[in-house]
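Entry for zinc ion complex. Fields follow.
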Amino acid sequence: MNPSTLRINAERFKTNFEALSKIGATPDGGVHRPTFSQAHLQVRAWFRELAAEAGLEFNIDSAGNHSALLQCADPEAPTLLLGSHLDSVTNGGRFDGAIGVLSALEVLQTIKDAGLYLPIHLEAIDFTDEEGTLFGLMGSAAVAGKLTPQDLLGLRGGRNALLSGLSRAGLTEEGLLMAKRQSHQTLGYLEVHIEQGSRLIEAGADIGLVTSIVGTNSYRLTFLGRADHAGTTPMDARLDAGQGASAFTLAARQQVMRNYPQCVVNIGSMTLEPGAFNIVPERACLSLEFRAHDEDTLDQLERALLELAEKEAQRFNLGLDIESVGAHQPALMSQQIQDVFHRAAKSLNLKTVPLASFAGHDAQSMASICPAGMIFIPSVDGASHSPREYTEWQDCVNGASVLLHAVLSMAIG
Ligand SMILES: [Zn+2]
């Protein structure tokens, strides 16, 4: 057969998507599948069954990444990885990650059903904890050999959540640190994902060719003051931790908008302690996250924001504790894979547009051990990490179809 005429089975793809959307479904049409929750373990068991039904081999690595495999006859042949993640944020949407894993599986099934022989191994992978319930990009960072024992001590989700989650899933910290794959065995990594923004729809394009993925650093900052009577302590004698935290929050936004217009900063939580109407706050704890597209800018931004925090702490005579709780480096996507995706889309009469990604993805971990590439499909209203997340079904089919033809092109030219 002529591989260029090969098409995915759109009906099967949709049936699988609908079945997947029921696992961890929330009443408002989203899904709730945080890493190692009951629903997440259930979705992984479901993926394993689906791979078996498709007659594909199955593998779980020591970081808990789940894979369906379509192997070729030559054991020395390299592997082309396709994938994404089946975990979700709290009360997330049905499409984020799920479309990437199901597209990958559909591509393997389509090639297998067609009896097409490729000279490479194909692997459809569901990475562990992409969304950061525990660490973020954890499974892909493990595969890339980027996880360190230090990383596992300072986690966004806290260390207890990691240890109890690993034990529920039958995994260990040692396993996470031993999951590295060798570059020479890995031909590349391809991922389909929803855009989670509205640039594709605004551009009237079907497929986004991802050029780079943003790097993200996270810190927990604690401003330290003194608890005092809120009535009897004069205003100018207070060491009010909340003042430092609030002043920093406002100044961080201004500084990023003024000096780093290509970057973003978010202070996503702020807790005041002891937390009472009548006590001056002694501690103010912030979750700080910021993103940039290249390492130099990310480093500069980090210095600027931490200096600003020190300055605001001094201004209110407060102490400051700075705890790093995770960093993901920015990554450029392979130009060669962008070209492959572009040609695949063109052969299917789909319009492409290049885009940088402001969301983190497993492809940024994988880019350190192999050529990595991603495509985006449109998100209606740009909604994501919410039950409102929606992508037209034809766009999902387009994404899987471009992935299929990119795989065929990389395997047989
Ligand atoms: Zn995702």
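NOTE: The longest strand covers residues 215-224.
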